[in-house]
């Protein structure tokens, strides 16, 4: 994997994290913060889906994706990434706790 590919993967993941927590980093961060505070998680969802596609084995991304989905009331959409986390790590307490909110 080239350095450019590694950087691209990390950039998408950082964008997802920044959007999820509503932090302001560099230009445009304030818009992300306002969107998150106002309950608009569409940007977070976009970044997380992109990050999940690039890093399919990353449980942190899957759990954050599930949280955003649950915050929108999308229980069915949240269930898939949580089940994937539990397939890889059946003892993941956070995934179990969030999955219990899906049923």
Question: Descriptors for this entry?
Answer:
103 residues, 74% helix, single chain, mainly alpha, 6 helices, flat, Serine Threonine Protein Phosphatase 5, Tetratricopeptide repeat
Count of the separate structural domains: 1
Q: What is the radius of gyration computed over CA atoms, rounded to a whole number of angstroms?
A: 14 Å
User: CATH homologous superfamily?
Assistant: Tetratricopeptide repeat domain
Let me know the number of strands. 0
Just give the CATH class: Mainly Alpha
The overall average pLDDT, rounded, is 76
Order of helices and strands: HHHHHH
Helicity level: over 70%
Written account of the structure:
There is one protein chain. By secondary structure, the chain is mainly α. The chain has one domain (3-100): Serine Threonine Protein Phosphatase 5, Tetratricopeptide repeat, CATH 1.25.40.10. It has six helices and no strands. The chain has helices at 3-21, 29-37, 42-54, 59-71, 75-88, 93-100. Helix 1 (3-21) crosses helix 2 (29-37), helix 4 runs antiparallel to helix 5 (75-88) and helix 5 (75-88) runs antiparallel to helix 6. It is flat. The chain starts with a helix and ends with a helix.
Question: What's the gist of this structure?
Answer:
By secondary structure, the protein is mainly α.
Secondary structure layout:
Elements (H helix, E strand, L loop, with lengths): L2 H19 L7 H9 L4 H13 L4 H13 L3 H14 L4 H8 L3
Helix pairs in contact: 1-2, 1-3, 3-4, 4-5, 5-6
